[in-house]
Amino acid sequence: MKIAVIQGPNLNMLGVREQHIYGPMSLDQIHEQMKASAAQNDVELEFFQSNLEGEIVDRIQECLGTVDGILINPAAFSHTSIAIKDALSAVNLPTVEVHISNIYKREEFRQKSITAGASTGVITGFGPFSYHLGLISLTQIISEVKAAHQAQQEAAAKAQAQVEEK
């Protein structure tokens, strides 16, 4: 199983910026914890961070046919980016959006996530642990999608075999 982890603007400043909101962990430390968890579950992670909306859109598009799902923290773009939402909708992959802070306890403009509308689910407010919860959720969703796809293929093969017998 392969998952793209896409990080939005200013997340490269974690551990430095607004520690009272985001905590002391750096993005590299969060990624190291994710790698450890992923390795235990035979999941490969690809990490990407950008402060540029277009680069995030490009990375999402590159996920089509190359990964099984996307774990994304669009950060401030959550509240403004129709382009990122459209890219997520276009690739139509299982996607979990995560936020370190509880966006519903913050300023009113942060309480609406445009990108959430293209996500399978959203996890918000558990600090860096949000990424761990997101990873667990996404691996479960991907497993369920794969199982459903396999069941459809088996049913189609069985139906074809029945037609050929007649």
UniProtKB/TrEMBL annotation:
Q: Which reaction does it catalyse?
A: 3-dehydroquinate = 3-dehydroshikimate + H2O
Pathway noted in the entry: Metabolic intermediate biosynthesis; chorismate biosynthesis; chorismate from D-erythrose 4-phosphate and phosphoenolpyruvate: step 3/7
Q: Where is the active site?
A: 22 (proton acceptor), 99 (proton donor)
- UniProt keyword annotations, A-Z: Amino-acid biosynthesis, Aromatic amino acid biosynthesis, Lyase
Which terms does the UniProt entry file under GO BP? Answer: amino acid biosynthetic process; aromatic amino acid family biosynthetic process; chorismate biosynthetic process; quinate catabolic process
Per its UniProt entry, what is the enzyme's top EC class, as one word? lyase
Q: Which Pfam families does the UniProt entry name for this protein?
A: DHquinase_II
What PROSITE patterns does the annotation carry?
Answer: DEHYDROQUINASE_II
Protein name as catalogued: 3-dehydroquinate dehydratase
Annotated organism of origin:
Halarcobacter mediterraneus
